[in-house]
Predict the 3D structure of the following.
Amino acid sequence: MLLSVIYILFVLVQFCINEKLSNFGKTQSNDIKYCTKPIKKGTESSCSDKILEYPISSDDLDLLKKNSLTFNTESCPSDPSLTCLSVDRQSLIGAGTYGLVVRGRSKAVHFPVAIKFIKLPTKLDIVSFNTAGRYNRIDRQSLIENRGSEKSLREAAALRLLTEYEIPSIPKYVAYIETSSYRILAMELLDGYEELSKIIDQLSSKDLIYVSCQTAAIVCNLDQIGVSHDDMHERNILVDRKNNKKVSIIDFGGAHFIGQQKHFTSTSNFLKQPINLLGHLKRIIKENLGDYIQSR
């Protein structure tokens, strides 16, 4: 298995190295305007307080509780009579153009939970599908054809499908809820992980090769059930440096559902933006990258 993954990486590298450097950085995250609250006192936040104000109605709270989801709340800054999501340092994970992500809790699962709140109206994709069987699992063919009686955010459908197939190294799906104000997606919180983009300069060439091989293995698993991530770059590859550089993949908002396997060829979707990572490896190793990966 490892040899086949390395060979796949080798083929990919040959294609990517021949690409023009001008292609670097074209792909952006679905959540472009990303911001976080300060971790240390005295530092400035990159978020506007108004952007972070997410009022929660009593109906919203009741619906979330019915789905075993809870989270911290606070009085809204602009109107203390209203209840808002808590955005203190213990609660806020991140905020962007389309929504806010906070830490939450669920009685239905044994792991920490991240809850994404997306304000309506939203331009994010909605997909349709049917469910079948005793456990109401997603019918893949209906999802591929984008037709069915159930609708949800594309990311929610992708995570639910991947969780049903027990694909590892992907945040587990917990719940998807729609209210009059929000589309809400609850998923596993990958605590302790860091964006590859933030630590790539601190990793050795051996570590980077290991991260690349893990990423290839994850995409092989996605390929087996016909899911294409379609936005895999260094911000969506997470690394747990305290747990043997374990890799996980996030942000399936641009996922596609395909009817056939599409492996690592020059036209496939291993990494939509692989050149940044491979170019960085090439600069560090300072030798023929293809020969280096093949030797490993």
User: Anything to note?
Assistant: Residues 205-224 form the longest helix (20 residues). Helices lie at 2-17, 58-66, 140-145, 154-164, 196-199, 205-224, 275-285, 289-295. The first strand starts at residue 69 and ends at 71.
